[in-house]
Amino acid sequence: MKGADLVPKIESCNALLSAFSRAHRTDQAWVLYAEMFRMRIPSTVVTFNVMINVLCKEGKLKKAKAFLRVMESSGVRPNVVTYNTVIGGYCSKGKVQMGIDMLDLMREKGIEPDSYTYATLISGMCKQGRIGDASKVFDEMLERGLRPSAVMYNALIDGCCNKGELDVAFRYRDEMIGRGIEPTVSTYNLLVHALFMEGRNFEANALIKEMEGKGLAPDAFTYNILINGYCKEGNVAKAFGLFDEMSNNGIRPTMVTYTSLIYVLCKRSRASEADRMFEEVKEKGLSPDLVMYNALIDGHCSSGNMVRAFELVKEMERTKVAPDEVTYNTLMRGFCLLGQVEEARELIEEMGRRGIKPDLISYNTLISGYSRRGDMKDAFRVRDEMLSRGFDPTILTYNALIQGLCKNGEGGNAEELLKEMVGNGIAPDDSTYLSLIEGLSDGKELIENADV
């Protein structure tokens, strides 16, 4: 058009700006906007809204808010879409209060919020766990006569599920049905996942049947929720049956699908099968992530195959997947199970060199390894190091030390440690009592007379 000496209409420019924004080609959007300015093509409210959206996508929220003033100084009045864009930008970054401030400013300017405004704020609040505040905003929206959507109800249901408030989540589900809004696949996915997390598998399966009865086909998320739930339950047959069903229905398994299956195979001491599935992941063009590597490494460490575990660590380095404290804690536990505590200790040093801070699990793993082997001086040395790093001992720390002392015939020290444990507000459990009963000649009498 420029080559033909034609000045593009603003509608053409806005359409192209919108296309660049949707494609996340923000650099090209700014080049075009600058060219429009050079050609003296006046911006409309649509132009400003698109460019404010571009700024929000770039994370430049202060500039997006400042652009509102530029817009007004140009004689263009912001509309509800303008404010919704900025509110959405703030909420997507977790700055919900800033979004609420924009809502107040919007009202001051005489612009009434719409359903999208409320939906954005409700979603942002629910993601922060502010269910009470989200409910108040939702009620305000209803009082204004605005109709809620399935997306809005899903945000509320998701927030309630994340807080373990399943009764409230189901009340919202019933309310949406009462308003004539049909639950979506996402609605069912949220509720099914929450039920599985609470071990309410029978109710979860009933909900899946209800969903299918309404003609809603399970999607990849549905299958991943079910497969993950059965994997955590240890039901390998059911998990793989769903995996086959998923593939037969033309739904492509995702990284989450494969990670869940590799996890359950490893927990069932079927690491060789997990290896084959891991290779299948790579053959399908998927890139294993940290969670998948850690699951597979754990499987080989549990079976004592440290050679394969370290092969996987080297592969992680080749594929630019950085190991974390979980990776190292898993390797340490593998060495300790084999009685090779010195090798586990060396990994603590390697973690430091890599800039990975050992955590409470790291120290408890070492303490348990030394105690199991009867090296109590080393176990207490690690305990002291742990305390110096600001970590408080847990029941796992005390149980490992008490077990080691009892095995070494140091009953008096074990009794003193029990008193310290109780004094620190940590109640003994079955493992504590079992160690004392087995390790002390008067263990049963001690427990019967203990004021715990």
UniProtKB/TrEMBL annotation:
Protein's name according to its UniProt entry: Pentatricopeptide repeat-containing protein At2g15630, mitochondrial
Superkingdom assignment: Eukaryota
Intervals holding PPR repeats: 9-43, 44-78, 79-113, 114-148, 149-183, 184-218, 219-253, 254-288, 289-323, 324-358, 359-393, 394-428
Pfam families referenced in this protein's UniProt entry, alphabetically: PPR_2
Residues annotated as transmembrane: none
Family matches, as PROSITE patterns: PPR
Designated gene of the protein: LOC109717890
Family: Belongs to the PPR family. P subfamily.
SUPFAM superfamilies noted in UniProt: HCP-like (SSF81901)
Lineage, uppermost ranks: Eukaryota, Viridiplantae, Streptophyta, Embryophyta, Tracheophyta
Stored InterPro entries: PPR-containing_protein, PPR_rpt, TPR-like_helical_dom_sf
Keywords of this entry: Repeat, Transit peptide
